[in-house]
Amino acid sequence: MSEKNNKNQELLKLIHKYLDSNNVLALKSCLSKVHPSEIADVLESSTESERRQLWSHINSSIEGDVLSNCNAVVRNSLLQHMEPSRVASATNHLELDDVADILQDLPHELADEILLSMDEQNRSRLGAVLNYSADTAGGLMNVDAVTVRSDVDVDVVLRYMRQTKHIPENFDQLFVVDRGDVFLGALSLSTLVLASSDAKISDIMDVNHPAIFADTPAHEVAILFEQRDLVSSPVIDESGRLIGRIMIDDVVDVIRQEGDHSLMLSAGLDEEHDIFAPVLVSTRQRSLWLAVNLATAFAAAWVIGLFEGTIEQLVALAVLMPIVASMGGIAGNQTLTIVLRGLALGNVGDANAKTVVRKEVAVGLANGCIWSIVVAFVAGFWFEDAGLGAVIGFAMVLNLLTAGLAGAAIPLLLQKINVDPALAGGVVLTTVTDIVGFVAFLGLATMFLV
To answer: Domain containing 405 — which CATH number?
Structure first.
């Protein structure tokens, strides 16, 4: 267990101890010493009744910070018990992208009430972010970028910055724009401080700094930050006008969400799934995926039933069937994982899809040949039947070859028809490898052994 997990569990035990003993003073003292993100972890690790009890003792000055660090399910359960004016007050010091994240996950009626509770300036600035989907650059951005003109001197900019009343949090660079707010370049603080006081901004700005269009998908923003080693980047609209900035902390959130998304979808769950949700809620959320898997299991069982007579005559087939299916499933999932990662990073697409499929088919064939020899020898020695060993060995080659082809082709095809490969890829692949494995093994046995 990691040090972070240990710390979270120790804090959780301590807080639950204070809650159980109703030691309010000790509880408030404890909460005042920990970061809002750690309080959010505790809330996510508690039952719904414990969350409500703990939330009532959290200092109102950090409520917004705690909410911004909670996942959507936990956050919404807390917001439902708060007055809109209280939510507006709790979030008025947060960065606009964090407030937007909170509001976008709420029912429209409640979100509208909270917006109406805000002052006009904050409501207008927040509206600029809410105009964009949460999973785009526009949904990630903050609108508090610091801008300068290209025709002014360094000394003018430095004096302006000393006199300004508000510098955005995590401020690391200025953005150079023209009179129409069209983005021209970026100027890092280090360059500004080291430059001669009479130097023109146009002479020292970075005209090659990448700007991100507001409708760029969030995962593409994350890839750009990783490729260019960016700490922040300007966001522009379709006409090139600067409308905000994205910081690295926003991108870290995207990376984590993408990881959670792939992991949870592979089990048919939402990435915001609440592990401490009521039993009936969790049961309902998981039932659909169980039903889908049951249907595919019946399909595989139906295939086996077609060879019922063969299995009755040669019981060893029933013993060895899981080996063929298991090896195909593992090989296919290896390929599926690699291709899903390539799709997520943009390394796999239309330009090289055929190359990837051919390579994975070759890998499947090579592994099939290698492991078929091992399996054939073990099965033949175990049941003292060389013919049985040859049949399972050949079936292994066919199934691993199919696993390589299916593991590469299925996610590519699913993406073509706009179905998330992370959601459906695993269950489709398992069905294919199970059915092909059973048909190959039992079919060959019917032809040559019975």
So the answer is: 1.10.357.20
Query: Looking at residue 397, what is its pLDDT?
Result: 96
d(CA 399, CA 234): 50
Examine the fold and report which residue of 109, 137, 165 is the final residue of a domain before the chain moves on. 137
Q: Is 273 a member of any domain? A: no
Rounded Cα–Cα distance for residues 114 and 118 (Å):
7
402 confidence band (pLDDT: 50, 70, 90): very high
* CA separation for the pair 23, 27 (Å, rounded): 6
Same domain, residue pair 152 and 133: no
Note whether 34 and 133 are same-domain residues: yes
- Going from the C-alpha of 53 to that of each of 27, 47, 81, the distances in angstroms are 11, 10, 12
The last residue of a domain, from among 137, 165, 183? 137
For residue 34, which phi and psi values (nearest 5 degrees)?
A: -115, 155
- Concatenated DSSP letters of 388-425: HHHHHHHHHHHHHHHHHHHHHHHHHHHHHTT--HHHHH
185 has which bridge partners? 176
Please tell me whether residue 201 adopts helix, strand or coil conformation. Answer: helix
183 SS3 class: strand
Residue-number span of the structural domain to which 430 is assigned: 279-448
Same domain, 151 and 129: no
Residues 265-290 have a mean pLDDT of 71
Does any domain span residue 271? no
Q: Is the dihedral of CA 29, 32, 38, 44 positive or negative?
A: positive
Q: Does residue 282 carry a pLDDT above 80?
A: no
pLDDT, residue 272, reads 57
Asked if pLDDT for residue 151 goes beyond 70, the answer is yes
pLDDT at 1: 47
Domain count, the chain: 3
Bridge partners for 188 per DSSP: 173
d(CA 142, CA 140): 7
Q: Are residues 429 and 293 in the same domain?
A: yes
In terms of domains, do 131 and 151 share one?
A: no
Strand partners, 153: 200
* pLDDT at residue 271, as a whole number: 55
Backbone dihedral region of 268: left (phi > 0), alpha (psi from -120 to 50 degrees) or beta? Answer: left
